[in-house]
Recover the amino acids of this structure.
């Protein structure tokens, strides 16, 4: 498989998954930036397990998911139904704390970073296919779960909370439980992504997990469309691909272009490119085609 | 018949002599180069927080390319530096490197460390040399033999340097170090400590500088409260300048007892610090006062393009890297034939890793296994944004 | 004791930066219902404009102040229609949309500064303008002119903005159009001109803050705004969104906390510890220490 294609697919998959991890809590109006900290924590943990304890990659990946779940759950006990602002501060706090702890922990490389993570298969080609398959499975599984969620009572409850929290409560929606569920699930996804992110690069560095990632995932969600899961699927490859296709003279102004796209989309198409109506219409069309 | 023979003989002898001499010239029968142009990609940081550093690194590489082309190119073909901006984004870095390894013989960069860590393994897997000429040995050696280090081992190079500084200030018995927790800097700080202790200077503490610090009063008060005789500053250039200003505003007088480390020697240091830096000592790896036509032309061109500023020390690294690639291509007979890509990549890598007496812009040095030997370091005094040589040190 | 006092002053100085920025941030919140996450970047941009004017006018401070204020007002007025357009419900604060839009604006500003000014290098304000010698120095205790000015003006700005918004007719009009545009129209408040005035007012404050920061810090860099943006948002949230006196108290408190942590514990832990404290506060009091004032 061409290398460029591998990196394009794998990094796009990570961006989609992480944007979904931000999208889910956002369904109840929570900007859950803790997910970026989850990436870092689970990623470094898995790297340490593989390099220092010589555990197999599969075990490290599961540990990454588990760590993400635990952290997400523990934090959600306090902020499951907190106001949006509180959730934002929690996210920032954990990003700062995780960075500080990691940079002061020599066992995980400290400020230098973690080098030379082993291949997850016996050959580089095998390694790439394994990563891609895992990412593909995650995309399908998590995408399926989010899709089912959106078409379930829980999904409708989340929409109600997004529009009017008090009204949703009066209809019997348990906001705290719903918030906890979404936050925990999001953190679990982020934990797994953190592990895979590092194994794509075969290294970890603190600057892989910065506030820049927060901006990137927010851009993907809001440009693609924050009302459905499909917006992310469209926006992630387009935004990543755009950065690779721009000619050098234009590429140096990439950040200005992204900022302008973000502002432009929010002004002209506030719901993003893929609106809920569009997604519903496409689903109806596909299901009617299937019936006929 | 005999007359004809005697007439022809000298001609034959001369022809034979030419043939003999031609064969003696290291076997450099003219290499049939297959490229129209040598494209050398440079994975650099041209936008984002360290864009100013990326700019002068690129400038140095472009300058070398221009000189080479003016002198006839590499094996008669022009060289072009293809700047590839990664903006400190590892996502972009890996995608660009995976493009580069398809066809390139060699690459410059990546810059800086997060992109190196993400993208250099791709170069290693594809057995292509990537010249990370601005990072420490601790990073570069992870990718040997497909990288080379521009710097020797930190623990070998820095202690004698710092000892030399301490010896310039014999009354200095204690010091405090300001440290930015980034990349190899803690390792450099540890090496500073070794050097200071060797000179009998006690390091009272390391004062950690947060990456997003905007005021430096608390840190400077913490340092000064320990009553140090000397200060070592190992953090970001702009913050280093502010720390010096803060020290001065709180009564620090003896500027010669402030030592700034090499990574602070950047345009941002001088543009932020200005005259407040006068008298402070900084160490680095190039001596700007060397008087050679080549270096004088470089300095003049740099000053012209950068508002009269002196070239920072890293500005020569990729300049030298481009010349090293030129030398490797010409001396190993690289043709640029795509069918020989793997073999020619190895030739370049092997040559660079063990090059002897490479004639850099400012000094000559040898490489042994990808690690430079016999590179000098210098102590300078800063005066009005320029560095005056105080001492040269060789480990 | 001397060290403690010195760190306290350092903390107040750092805190005054947060107070100034939070006041401008809260003003925009109160008069326009927008969370301008990148307000610090707008201020930094104004600092750059002031620097350019100082360079080309031989350090003319009045012109630099005018330019700084002018640029801040212009940016605010230019971004006003963008914010108004994307807010779906103008009676409530739409943190998500406005935060994301301001993120985009911040990205543009930071990158323009990296490309277009001083080759992306930090800028230093002239010593003649900033002042070199300390106003007062005893041992480790030192007070610079810029520190005194920003602390004093910070307190004055909070009081002034508070008085303007809550005790004057114009201020009430600003708040009315932010909280209930239809109601404001009904009572005869001209929406367009009042709205523009409110944005211009926050621009004026932004320009003045830029000048004060220039005096106090003596430098600026393209990334300076980003470095403080998270803390400015945090201070506003912890204090209570729109709470001006709360912003003053929490801003100063955060500055003092950071200074003490840096001075007595560790610089690299200062952010972590500061945010943990902020986090604990917000968990105990989700509506902020002093209550939301929207």
């Amino acid at each position: 498989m061409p290398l460029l294609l591998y990196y394009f697919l794998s990094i796009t998959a990570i961006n989609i998954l992480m944007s979904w991890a931000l999208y889910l809590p956002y369904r109840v109006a929570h900007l859950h930036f803790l997910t970026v900290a989850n990436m870092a924590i689970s990623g470094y943990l898995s790297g340490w397990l593989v390099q220092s304890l010589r555990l197999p990659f599969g075990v490290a990946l599961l540990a990454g998911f588990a760590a993400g779940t635990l952290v997400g759950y523990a934090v959600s006990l306090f902020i499951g139904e907190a106001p949006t602002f509180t959730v934002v501060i929690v996210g920032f706090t954990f990003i700062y704390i995780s960075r500080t702890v990691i940079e002061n922990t020599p066992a995980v490389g400290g400020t230098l970073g973690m080098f030379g993570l082993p291949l997850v298969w016996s050959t580089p080609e095998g390694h790439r296919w394994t990563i891609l398959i895992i990412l593909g499975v995650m995309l399908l599984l998590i995408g399926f779960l989010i899709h089912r969620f959106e078409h379930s009572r829980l999904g409708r409850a989340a929409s109600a909370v997004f529009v009017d929290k008090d009204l949703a409560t009066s209809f019997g929606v348990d906001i705290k439980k719903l918030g906890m569920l979404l936050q925990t699930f999001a953190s679990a996804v982020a934990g797994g992504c953190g592990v895979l992110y590092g194994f794509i690069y075969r290294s970890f560095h603190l600057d892989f997990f910065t506030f820049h990632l927060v901006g990137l995932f927010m851009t993907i969600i809001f440009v693609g469309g924050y009302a459905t899961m499909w917006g992310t699927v469209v926006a992630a490859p387009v935004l990543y691909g755009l950065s690779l296709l721009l000619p050098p003279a234009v590429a140096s102004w990439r950040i200005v272009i992204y900022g302008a796209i973000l502002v432009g989309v929010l002004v002209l198409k506030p719901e993003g490119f893929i609106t809920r109506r569009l997604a519903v219409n496409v689903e109806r069309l596909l299901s009617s085609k299937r019936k006929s | 018949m005999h007359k004809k023979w005697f007439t022809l003989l000298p001609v034959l002898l001369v022809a034979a002599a030419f043939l003999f001499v031609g064969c003696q010239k290291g076997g450099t029968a003219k290499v049939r180069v297959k490229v129209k142009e040598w494209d050398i990609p440079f994975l650099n940081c041209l936008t984002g927080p360290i864009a100013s550093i990326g700019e002068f690194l690129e400038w140095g590489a472009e300058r070398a390319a221009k000189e080479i082309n003016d002198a006839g190119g590499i094996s008669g073909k022009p060289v072009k530096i293809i700047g590839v901006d990664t903006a400190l984004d590892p996502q972009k870095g890996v995608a660009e490197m995976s493009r580069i390894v398809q066809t390139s013989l060699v690459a410059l960069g990546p810059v800086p460390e997060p992109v190196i860590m993400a993208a250099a393994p791709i170069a290693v897997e594809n057995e292509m040399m990537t010249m990370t000429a601005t990072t420490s040995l601790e990073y570069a050696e992870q990718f040997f033999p497909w990288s080379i280090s521009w710097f020797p081992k930190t623990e070998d190079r820095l202690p004698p340097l710092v000892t030399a500084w301490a010896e310039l200030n014999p009354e200095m018995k204690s010091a405090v170090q300001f440290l930015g927790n980034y990349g190899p800097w803690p390792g450099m700080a540890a090496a500073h400590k070794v050097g200071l202790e060797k000179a009998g200077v006690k390091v009272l503490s390391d004062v950690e500088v947060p990456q997003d610090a905007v005021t430096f009063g608390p840190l400077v008060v913490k340092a000064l409260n320990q009553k140090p005789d000397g200060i070592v500053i190992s953090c970001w250039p702009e913050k280093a300048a502010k720390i010096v200003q803060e020290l001065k505003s709180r009564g620090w007088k003896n500027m010669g007892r402030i030592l700034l480390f090499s990574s602070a020697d950047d345009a941002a240091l001088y543009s932020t610090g200005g005259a407040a830096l006068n008298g402070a000592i900084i160490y680095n790896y190039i001596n700007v006062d060397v008087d050679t036509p080549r270096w004088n032309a470089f300095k003049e061109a740099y000053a012209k393009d950068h508002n009269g500023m002196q070239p920072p020390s890293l500005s020569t690294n990729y300049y030298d890297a481009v010349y090293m690639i030129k030398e490797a291509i010409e001396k190993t007979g690289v043709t640029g034939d795509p069918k020989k890509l793997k073999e020619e990549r190895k030739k370049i890598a092997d040559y660079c890793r063990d090059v002897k007496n490479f004639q850099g812009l400012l000094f000559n040095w040898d490489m042994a296994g990808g690690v430079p030997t016999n590179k000098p370091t210098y102590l300078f005094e800063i005066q009005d944004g320029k560095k005056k040589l105080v001492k040269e040190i060789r480990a | 004791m001397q060290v403690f006092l010195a760190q306290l002053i350092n903390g107040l100085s750092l805190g005054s930066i947060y107070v100034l920025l939070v006041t401008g941030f809260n003003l925009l919140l109160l008069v326009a219902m927008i969370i301008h996450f990148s307000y610090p970047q707008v201020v930094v941009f104004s600092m750059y404009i002031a620097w350019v004017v100082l360079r080309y006018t031989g350090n003319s401070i009045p012109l630099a102040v005018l330019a700084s204020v002018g640029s801040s007002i212009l940016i605010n007025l230019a971004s006003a229609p963008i914010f108004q357009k994307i807010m779906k419900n103008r009676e409530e604060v739409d943190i998500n949309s406005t935060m994301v839009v301001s993120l985009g604006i911040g990205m543009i500003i930071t990158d323009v500064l990296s490309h277009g000014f001083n080759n992306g290098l930090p800028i230093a304000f002239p010593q003649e303008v900033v002042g070199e010698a300390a106003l007062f120095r005893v041992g480790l205790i030192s007070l610079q002119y810029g520190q005194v000015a920003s602390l004093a003006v910070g307190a004055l700005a909070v009081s002034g903005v508070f008085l303007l918004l809550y005790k004057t007719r114009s201020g009430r009009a600003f708040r009315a159009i932010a909280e209930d545009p239809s109601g404001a129209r009904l009572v005869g408040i001209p929406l367009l001109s009042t709205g523009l005035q409110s944005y211009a007012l926050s621009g004026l404050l932004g320009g003045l803050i830029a000048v004060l920061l220039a005096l106090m810090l003596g430098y600026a860099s393209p990334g300076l705004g980003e470095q403080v943006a998270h803390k400015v948002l945090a201070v506003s949230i912890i204090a209570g969104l729109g709470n001006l006196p709360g912003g003053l108290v929490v801003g100063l408190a955060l500055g003092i906390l950071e200074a003490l942590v840096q001075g007595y514990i560790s610089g690299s832990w200062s952010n972590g510890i500061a945010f943990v404290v902020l986090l604990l506060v917000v968990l105990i009091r989700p509506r902020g220490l002093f209550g939301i004032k929207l």
Residues 38-151+312-362 of chain B form a domain with the Rossmann fold fold (CATH 3.40.50.2300). Chain B touches chain C at residues 47-49, 51-52, 55, 181, 207-210, 212-215, 217-219, 221-222, 224-225, 238, 241-242, 245, 249-251, 267-268, 271-275, 306 (CB under 8 Å).
